[in-house]
# Entry
Amino acid sequence: MAEIFLSYRRQDSQSATGRLADALEAHFGDERVFRDREFVAGEDFVDAIRRSVQSATVLLVVVGRHWLDAADAQGRRRLDDPRDFVRLEIELALAARIAVVPVLVEGATMPAAADLPASLGAFARCQAVELSDSRWRYDVEQLITALQARYAIDLDSAPARSGEGPATLALTRVASDLFDLALHPTRLIARQQTGRASDSARALAFVVGAIWGGNMLLLFGFDIGNPKGSSLGQALAATASWLLAGEVAGLLFAFLLAAALALAWRVVGSGPAFRRAGIVFAFIYGGVWIGLCTGMVLSGSAVQLVDSTFFARVLAMAHASAAAPDAAFAAMPELRWGDAPYGGIAAVLLVLAAGLWAATFVWCVAAWSAFRNAFATTRARSWLATSLWLAMLAAVVWLAKNLV
# Structure
């Protein structure tokens, strides 16, 4: 999805919008600028607008001299119609807290709040920019500079000017996407849903990489792949075995959770849902896994500072539990802080781990609204689907506990 969404009225500013779009596309690239001509024939127009606006970084509203009083065939003002597409675009952006920038063209002025529908009252307070015909090129360049500086929109042409290669550009883009996923998960996830077959491939690649990254953290954080006394070959074999087993198990677990979630969305009436639910869930699952593993490494490091033999004793207890569960539980090793030389540092690490887990939970809750955007549905239906999914998981756990 594009990061710059152009909102305009054809009967008001089509020519000026076309000039502006050409300049933005030449500078940022075609894929980063969206206008209504990008819609595919037969696509649900309202759903496409919602997905495109909610995945954008900034909404540029091109306002001409007749933007406010534009009327339909019956003489009614378009802005007063709740189904008006320009009104819908601005309402969606304001509700999603996406930056809205009025762009005044052809001598237009900003409308007053009293002249707008109540749902667009905040639009009158947005800082506008003016593109004058007499200094068009200069004004557009100033707008582009502001988009780069304030909203960090990337340039497709940057490698050609800086001498960077495609590999460097790809790494930069991945880093930018990961940063955006951490701060604006719903926006990034929406941007990955273009309707193309490659959407699923990107989601799968992300979750595979996230599972691998989390397993690598656990591997080195707890020294899983390097048994004491092992040779280099044995250590490498153990590492490869750990990573492969962890990847397969993680992917299988993610697939089962995504399948159950897609079924829940299907039950609440969202039609075929596996692809859309799977794409969203892949990004959320991957992000949560990285957060959990990082917190586990921090907490594990704290335990190691306090008692370096604790995990070895826990592992021995786990092996003994197969023969005598009650006795093994009674012999659960204790973690003593009294004489620990690094107890203060360990406490700090535990606080950091708890904070990271809390932040991961908050991030997950925020990212979960990406489902509502993907299915273009209400908050009530989204929570209904989530509740049904959690009930299904609870039922599976209960059955497994009582039948095994």
